[in-house]
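User: My collaborator sent over this chain with a note saying "see what the structure looks like." That's all I know about it. Can you take a look?
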Amino acid sequence: MNKKVLFLIKTYLILISSQLYSQTFTVESVLSYPFPTELTSSPSWSKIAWTFNEQGRRNIYVAEAPDFTPRKITDYTKDDGQELTSISISADGKWVVFVRGGDHSGSNSSMPVNAAFDPIAAKVQIISVPFEGGKSNILVEADEPIISPASDRIIFAKGGQVMSMAIDGSSAAKPLFYARGTTGSLSYSPDGTKIAFVSSRGDHSFIGVFTDEQNPINWILPAFSRDSSPRWSPDGKSLAFVRMPGTGGKTDSIFARRHQPWTIWTADIESGNGQAVWKAPETLEGSVPPTHGGTNLHWAAGNRIVFVSYQDGWPHLYSVDANGGKELLLTPGSFMVEQIRLSNDKKWLVFAANAGKDPSDIDRRHIVKVPVDRAQMKILTPGDGIEAYPVITGDNNTIAFLSSTAQRPLLPAIMKFDGGPVKLLGENLIPAGFPESQLVTPKHVTFKAPDGQTVYGQLFEPKNAGKGKRPAVVYVHGGPQRQMVLGWHFMDYYSIDYGLNQYLANLGFTVLSVNYRLGIGYGYKFQRALNAGAMGASEYQDVKAAGEWLANQPNIDANKIGIYGGSYGGYLVALALGRDSKLFAAGVDIHGVNNRFSNYNQTSREEAPDAELYKATVEKSSPVSYIDTWTSPTLIIHADDDRNVNFSQSVDLARRFEDKKFEFEYLAIPDDTHHWMKYSNGVKVSEVTAEFLQRKLMAK
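Assistant: Without extra context I'll predict from the sequence alone. Here is the result:
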């Protein structure tokens, strides 16, 4: 065969290969969707508000009955990294109050973010704007405002103390009262005459009630405890709250799994008398619930107190008589509840749950409601969509929520309180170039880890992939208390990763998004796995099992399996590349915890009896312990204003690679945070990740 024929054959094969893995949309186009957050409703009207992030331009939108047509009432025009949070509507329906700035998904949430490199320093500000639209009022540099029931003022904590000012900015902020410690969890009484709060004081916390400047603060049943979550009774005469032991006590084994006790108390405000009305079972599952909203305490109608507990192995809703007695399980079954709302008449609970008739619903969310006094649960949005973050309008006629599918990105939606047809809001804001019709539908899959643990995942397979073997990628979410779902995610960070998984599938990769142990959605034992994290990294078995499962598929090239993930997922990516470079041919470690040693801190005056064993286990659980066997090509990505994982984690890993003379690639982003506050940075991270994996795993 002559050289000309060989050249033609080679050219033909390249053309076939390029058609097989042709790129039909870009990263930027698949991430161009408007992303809604902070959905809220008015206390007394049929009005709702939310934030739309349109390629970094974040603005407040509102809608009201009867047609709920969205209206934009702010006009921020730049991708400047300034998020909008703490959105609320006044009881009279006339005002929307929100916070602009900060990063409220990380520590130091009230610290400004300057991801746009603005020469004028960014601020975290409370702002009010008329619901009907008009001039925005910059009220004060502060955070987490609460609107008074009279709709005329806001209160907020600043420097640990409570301040008050007019909602329209007509009067300056002034101190409302002083209390030692750090004051938070502010809550108006139903009539607006009193404010309950938590005073945190290190190893203990008190609940107080402020009335006015003439009356001393009323401390509610102070004890050597950590009291939290004050909730007013409907008549405003009593409070319910959660009581946990104060910190301290004898140093125990680090590896010991202990029950974390908690009780629900009620107290009469006038007399000061109170009692414990419910005590958590003294089991591991009965411990303080590690879920969205914690105990999710509410004082409901019929003198019922509702809360969340894992006591039967799943995070479920319960209610108990405010005078004490046996708790009533409201949501029996093998599923979780989260994002819980109490209706304004206090008779119903509306929430999101991974429940339904389809076994794949365990990897979805649907809107569910249940009465506070009966276990008569009704799934309002069955099907193959994703529905989350419900709110109830003040007239109890409408439920608003966030809705997506495998192809359509997240949008606000409404339906009648009893269910029925769903109306999407803002669908016209999805850009014309968004590639909805080209996206695949991920499949629910399960497989086994070496120790027998069932592992869950979503499999993205490329359209028209042909019969040959193709490369694959394992995606590892962060958290770790997260769950990827069978559609566009309801959290912005994971929505970006879902879009990247779709893009990788479009390039020709098979992508396996793995829900490993420590994640939510599969019960207490899965979420609170033994020997996990710094205590043995047992969850890494699930990630390795995902790679091995892919390697055993007949259409996957076992020599071209990559891996990527961020945050806790970055930690597991680093373990994968350090321990198993033979399995994972390339990887992207995005702001991962690479060095567990930096997290070890013996704070007690007494050393734990198993401290030395713990130190040894930390070493085995730390990716930097495997530098010598880390051989796969690696890309490190990190932003240096990260408030969740220190930038030093990546600096340290890079230095170790440099000392080893190990070549690696990197992307360092100045002044952004863990959550890519600047839209263009999120796009850049996804583009660089995809290009790296394509170059390392698809190159001939």
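A starting point for your reply to your collaborator: The chain has nine helices and 40 strands.
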